[in-house]
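Hi V.,

You were right to ask for the full record rather than a summary. Here it is.
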Amino acid sequence: MSARIAGLALLALAAILYLAGAARFDSQAGSASDEYRQARDQRREVRSRLAELERRAAARARATAVLAAARSAPSGVREIRRGVVDLVTRSRVSAVRLGVRPGRPPAAAAVALSAEGSFADVVRLTAELARAGSGLVFERVRLVSHAPRVGLDVEASGVAGAP
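Predicted structure:
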């Protein structure tokens, strides 16, 4: 009988210790889970901010590179770019894309231009670009119908010293 009572007492003691320990560890596990959740949320927020800052830094670096290239471009490239921009701004075309980069000698610059407008406006711009003294020598001209408008694609070489 005393062995049974001792066994029951040990069982009761084990149950009390288990419940007390389990409750304590359960509360610790709950707080650890909350801390982990907060740390995970902070990590996501920090990664998001870091990605945004990296995108801004990359955009700033690209803009700086473009500006530096424009400043260091030979004066002939700048003159040709300014001349083409002036002609395009005076024309009545839209959806303009212009690329001017240093060309292979004897050309000072390589020009790529695309634009859209009415047939008359596109032909007028093409004539202005092709006129003597513009400094451009056409390599390829393409007119494409985008009813009711016309698309213009021009590839040309710019001659140094021309206005």
